[in-house]
Design a protein that fits this description.
This protein is mostly helical and about 220 residues long. Helix content is about 55%, strand content about 5%. It contains twelve helices and three strands. The chain has a three-stranded antiparallel beta sheet.
Length: about 220
């Protein structure tokens, strides 16, 4: 698998093995898009430690997805709802970019951003709590992950904690430093995993690495 721990820079303080499994059980594009949105926003904010609103992450996810869908009509998988939702956005968003695109997506695709919040932020960090989640019913998984991300923030050091009430995430300071220091290496690791997933969904598309590299 392209997303193995050996492909990532090592750390004595952080659980790189858990981090390497972020995309292990993936049925759609949401976790990939969420992680790339997280990287983008972190870089835009110069890796500061301020909480990130889930709504900002959802909008960034859709911006990334639109930039792949609109020019290339890439598929995100049979179980993925994002491309279907873009059909109603195509006329509005065809000539938009940058902040105009973000504002249009935020206003025109509000219901989609709400649906994306239900799973990706929680399931992405599940590998940090595999032992604690054994036997937990599916309907209680998100609630447990959110609680664990807060209660075990100091000792487990998950990538981030989730504040359900404020609808924000707060990255662990040590992960922020890791991502800042190893940004290029983490991006390369992510791109290999993202490309592997998208190749399965777009087997007939030529030059897929080039198309994805433009995102």
């Amino acid at each position: 698998m392209s997303q193995g721990a050996n492909a990532l820079p090592k750390s004595e303080q952080l659980n790189i093995e858990a981090f390497s499994k972020l995309f292990t059980h993936t049925a759609n594009s949401y976790k990939y898009l969420f992680f790339l949105a997280l990287l983008n926003i972190l870089k835009q904010r110069n890796f500061n430690h301020a909480p990130i609103a889930l709504q900002d992450l959802m909008v960034e996810m859709l911006v990334i997805a639109w930039q792949a869908y609109h020019p290339h009509r890439l598929s995100f998988g049979n179980k993925d709802m994002i491309a279907g939702r873009f059909d109603v956005f195509a006329e509005v968003g065809s000539n938009l970019s940058g902040e105009e695109l973000r504002k249009a997506i935020a206003s025109k695709m509000l219901s989609t951003t709400k649906e994306l919040k239900k799973f990706a932020p929680y399931r992405l960090i599940r590998p940090f709590f595999e032992m604690e989640l054994k036997g937990v019913k599916s309907g209680e998984t998100n609630q447990n992950i959110a609680a664990l991300s807060r209660d075990r923030f100091q000792d487990k050091k998950p990538l981030y904690s989730i504040d359900d009430q404020d609808e924000t995430i707060s990255l662990h300071p040590e992960w922020i430093e890791y991502l800042k220091t190893n940004y290029d290496a983490v991006c390369q690791w992510f791109f290999a995993a993202w490309l592997e997933y998208m190749q399965k969904c777009n087997s007939s598309i030529d030059n897929l690495p080039t198309k994805l590299a433009l995102l």
